[in-house]
């Protein structure tokens, strides 16, 4: 490799890829094992470093090139943007991946690209890199490739044979805002490869069940991301879209990317507008409630309250709107109900269920187990004679909880949302 | 009160447990070497590690513990927390005195302490899987220096062996002065003496492969390029990457040249 040029390319093409927020590198059930004394295996995914903004670095996340024929307003690599352009060769990406992986810097490669020439030409390059890593370098680490909208089914299928995960970004939560910011694109172009991938993934899974020697196909599934805070969608629309992807597309993850202002385009929030980090955080919390806590999306947002509360998390928000479900007796309630108590997470809920087999749990036991008792106490019932149940209104509870908690986001509380209200 | 001096291995500790019952010791304290405060105790007992005794204790524990319960004990042992041997002994006593599995009894202090210690070691061994930074030498050896709070090398060797099956590597714990070395076949424990400071720049320049510095600088540049300045969150950064690890993290060390 020509050292200086590669150094410069890496700076340009890593910088351009950093707004893609997917970072997962976990293989899921079908692990790619290192069975042939080769290099690497894909297990549970490890975050090897954390940037100064606190996001994890688990993959070498780069663009193959930032040359692009499209002009999407939200994207740094858009055609009309006056920036330095660069392109890696296939061999350079392979060498970088292997060199970084051998030094234990990364779990694998996340490869995206600007669209140069046409979608098939771009996709073909991405596939060639993955193929070379697998077949020539004997590499079993994680590979996440972008499925380029408009690329042929055959190429996307080939990508799935070598990649652990494929993703197509929906970019904007609604068709309307996509039309506004990326007039050349439409949702149908994105949904088509997603649907194709869904069917292929399901098909290969079935085949794998019958024949364990059947080849892997994108064993870590597919993901997508939406930019939030660039346009005017409310959280109901955003989570509704996410829910559609989870239910209809078997999506493994939906990522929410708080818009970082990068252009003077008057369709977008001005440069200097804070990144809506707290809203992004609330959306992720809501997403977890849907995926791991058994909540239905309509319990979290609805037509009467289309946006998530910014000052409290969505689970507390739900509990305050549903005080009639409380107090819950943790010594007898089902796991599903315990999971709905603010301040008790999945691990804590399981600890409670296991510890209560040995004795009736009292408040001091909960503190010992590391449960946020100060938050959860408003929603708990103990059958001890010493426990005093006060009838507080939801406003009183919220005030008391806000008093004891110091939001980690207080310093960078975003006002971006208020622009649109 | 009896002072039990053992060799510091898990098998040694298991042997000690056997002998506590064998000799009916009451009120025991564990020590790893004979130079400890032996003089302050009336009774001192030297434990010679004995695999037969250790296995009998292990078998007894397995009767009432799940495999993950045994793993937790093993992990807790490697936490090297103060008085961890005594905590483990209290836990073992509770296991032996009960007719059913007590792992889930987390409101019990003996159980909770072991779980917490195991969690601590588990967390650090996970971090060591992440924060090992290999450097390539002229002799094609990938080596890394670590300094974990818990003794995690025994817990991470399998991970590295699976992952880097086709390269020779060494991970050296400067705090405990031993390392694990993989020779393309097996992993063995090694003790090393360095002629000079292993992290000095002169030493590194002498032994490194010619592309090593290039890759380190690439990684540092990459690390800088992926940061989004307008999202800066130092607290979160430090929470995930505690400062105590920084001196062995390539991306946290300034460029050697320039």
Protein topology:
The complex is a heterodimer of chains A (421) and B (258).
Chain A (H helix, E strand, L loop, with lengths): L2 H13 L33 E2 L5 E2 L1 E5 L26 H13 L5 E5 L6 H17 L6 E5 L6 H10 L2 E3 L7 H7 L5 H24 L11 E7 L6 H14 L4 E6 L18 H16 L4 H4 L13 H8 L13 H4 L7 H10 L7 H6 L4 H4 L17 H11 L17
Helix pairs in contact in A: 2-3, 3-4, 4-6, 7-8
Chain B lengths: L1 E4 L4 H13 L5 E4 L11 E4 L4 H14 L2 H12 L5 H14 L11 H23 L3 E2 L4 E6 L6 H11 L4 E6 L4 E5 L4 E4 L10 H7 L4 H14 L8 H7 L18
Parallel strand pairs in B: 1-2, 1-3, 5-6
Antiparallel strand pairs in B: 4-5, 6-7, 7-8
Helix pairs in contact in B: 1-2, 3-5, 4-5, 5-6
Report on this structure.
The complex is a heterodimer of chains A (421) and B (258). In chain A, 38% of the residues lie in helices and 8% in strands. Chain A has 421 residues and is of the alpha/beta class. In chain A, strand 5 (142-146), helix 4 (153-162) and strand 6 form a beta-alpha-beta unit. Chain A is globular and about 70 Å long. The relative contact order of chain A is 0.09. Chain B has 258 residues and is α/β, with parallel strands linked by helices. Chain B has a five-stranded mixed beta sheet, covered by helices on one side. A three-stranded parallel beta sheet of chain B has the order 2-1-3, with no helix packed on it. In chain B, strand 5 (141-146), helix 6 and strand 6 form a beta-alpha-beta unit. In chain B, helix 3 packs across helix 5 (109-131). Chain B starts with a strand and ends in an 18-residue tail after the last helix. Chains A and B meet through helix 1, strand 1, strand 2, helix 2 and helix 12 of A and helix 5, strand 4, helix 8 and helix 9 of B.
């Amino acid at each position: 490799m020509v050292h200086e040029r590669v150094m410069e390319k890496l700076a340009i093409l890593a910088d351009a890829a950093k707004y893609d927020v997917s970072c997962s590198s976990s293989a899921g059930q079908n692990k790619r094992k290192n069975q042939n004394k080769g290099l690497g295996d894909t297990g549970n995914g490890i975050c090897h470093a954390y940037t100064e903004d606190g996001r994890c670095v688990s993959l070498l996340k780069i663009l193959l090139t930032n040359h692009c024929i499209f002009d999407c307003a939200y994207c740094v690599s858009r055609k009309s943007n006056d920036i330095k352009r660069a392109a890696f060769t296939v061999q350079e990406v392979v060498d970088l991946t292997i060199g970084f992986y051998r030094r234990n810097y990364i779990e694998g490669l996340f490869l995206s690209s600007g669209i140069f020439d046409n979608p098939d030409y771009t996709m073909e390059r991405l596939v060639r890199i993955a193929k070379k890593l697998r077949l020539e370098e004997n590499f079993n680490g994680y590979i996440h490739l972008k499925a380029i909208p408009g690329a042929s089914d055959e190429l996307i299928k080939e990508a799935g044979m070598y990649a652990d995960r494929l993703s197509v970004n929906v970019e904007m939560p609604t068709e309307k805002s996509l039309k506004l910011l990326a007039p050349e694109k439409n949702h149908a172009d994105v949904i088509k490869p997603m649907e194709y991938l869904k069917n292929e993934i399901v098909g290969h899974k079935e085949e794998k069940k019958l024949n364990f020697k059947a080849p892997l196909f994108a064993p870590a599934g597919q993901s997508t991301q939406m930019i939030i805070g660039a346009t005017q969608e409310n959280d109901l629309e955003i989570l509704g879209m996410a829910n559609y992807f989870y239910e209809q597309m078997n999506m493994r993850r939906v990522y929410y990317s708080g818009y970082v202002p990068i252009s003077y385009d008057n369709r977008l929030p001005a440069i200097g507008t804070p990144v809506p980090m707290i809203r992004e955080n609330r959306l992720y919390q809501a997403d977890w409630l849907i995926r791991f806590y058994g909540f239905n999306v309509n319990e979290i947002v609805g037509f009467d309250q289309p946006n998530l509360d910014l000052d409290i998390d969505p689970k507390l928000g739900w509990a305050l709107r549903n005080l009639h479900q409380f107090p819950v007796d943790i010594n007898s309630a089902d796991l599903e109900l315990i999971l709905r108590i603010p301040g008790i997470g999945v691990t804590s809920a399981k600890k409670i269920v296991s510890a209560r087999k040995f004795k009736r749990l009292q408040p001091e036991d909960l503190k010992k187990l590391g449960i946020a008792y100060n938050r959860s106490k408003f929603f708990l019932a103990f059958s001890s004679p010493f426990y005093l149940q006060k009838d507080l209104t939801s406003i009183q509870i919220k005030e008391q909880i806000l008093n004891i908690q110091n939001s980690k986001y207080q310093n960078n509380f975003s006002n971006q949302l208020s622009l649109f209200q | 009160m009896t002072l039990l001096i053992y060799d510091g291995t898990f098998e040694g500790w298991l042997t000690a447990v056997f002998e506590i019952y064998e000799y009916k010791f009451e009120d025991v304290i564990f020590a790893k070497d004979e130079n400890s405060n032996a003089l302050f105790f009336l009774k001192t007992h030297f434990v010679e590690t004995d695999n037969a005794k250790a296995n009998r204790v292990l078998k007894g524990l397995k009767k009432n513990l799940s495999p993950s319960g045994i793993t937790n004990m093993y992990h807790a042992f490697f936490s090297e927390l103060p008085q961890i041997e005594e905590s483990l002994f209290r836990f073992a006593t509770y296991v032996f005195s009960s007719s059913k599995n007590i792992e889930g009894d987390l409101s019990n202090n003996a159980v909770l302490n072991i779980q917490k210690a195991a969690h601590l070691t588990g967390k650090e061994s996970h971090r060591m899987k992440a924060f090992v930074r290999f450097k390539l030498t002229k002799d094609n050896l990938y080596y890394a220096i670590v300094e974990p709070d818990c003794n995690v090398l025994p817990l991470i060797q399998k991970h590295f062996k699976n992952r880097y099956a086709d390269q020779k590597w060494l991970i050296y714990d400067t705090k405990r002065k031993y390392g694990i070395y993989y020779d393309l076949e097996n992993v063995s424990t090694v003790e090393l003496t360095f002629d000079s400071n292993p992290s000095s720049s002169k030493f590194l320049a002498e032994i490194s492969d010619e592309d090593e510095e290039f890759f380190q600088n690439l990684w540092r540049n990459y690390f800088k390029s992926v940061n989004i300045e307008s999202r800066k969150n130092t607290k979160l950064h430090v929470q995930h990457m505690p400062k105590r690890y920084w001196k062995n993290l390539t991306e946290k060390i300034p460029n050697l040249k320039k």
